[in-house]
Amino acid sequence: MPNISEALHSTLGSVKLDIAQQIASACADLDCSAYIVGGTVRDALLGLPAADLDVTVVSPPDDFLNRAAKILDAQVVMVSHFGTAKLELQGVSFDLVMARSERYRSPGALPDVSPGTLDDDLARRDFTINSMAASLDASTWGDLVDLHEGLGDLEKGLVRTLHCESFQDDATRILRAARYASRFDFRMADVTGAEIDQSIGYLNSISIERFKHEMDRVL
User: Fold this and answer.
1) What pLDDT, on the 0 to 100 scale, is given for residue 1?
2) Using CA atoms, how far apart are residues 126 and 124, in angstroms rounded to an integer?
3) DSSP code per residue over 204-216
4) Which helix (H) or strand (E) holds 54?
């Protein structure tokens, strides 16, 4: 897999890059691994400024969040029961996500989560272009992890789901697919377009609040 450290330098800017390196150092001190993930990697590969800094932590120790925040001298802004936390450092907010797997009991339900590997964490994501990671470990900094051909889809300009039940699990992804296609001038993969046609009724399974949130982002 390629190394995208130069692209990350360009997309993150000096402040976010410094924070990413501090997170990597803190994780090394706590004997765990950190990866930049999702949209941050996607935008780096597209040559776009990173709107967010999203970091996944693999095999974090007990009380990782408090220990990491102390090492970083960062403020914990929000913690969710899905293993996600928002922190603030140097005036920049960033997300720390504990690597996890997800299981959906029924269409529209929020997922049941459990600790997982990096592979698990990438497999739970919405589209292949958002399922890539880049290592923050000192010895492999910037090495791309692409288990679902996200780089190829990015180069082809395709929005493609990771599995056939993706929209059934979370129908808000239908709206997200339209947003990404419009934002990047991409097209739906044929199989993904067919999955949307078959899954459109699942939009009725999500709450009005979640629907409104996604529609606001589309608009």
Assistant:
1) 77
2) 7
3) GGS-HHHHHHHHH
4) strand 54-58
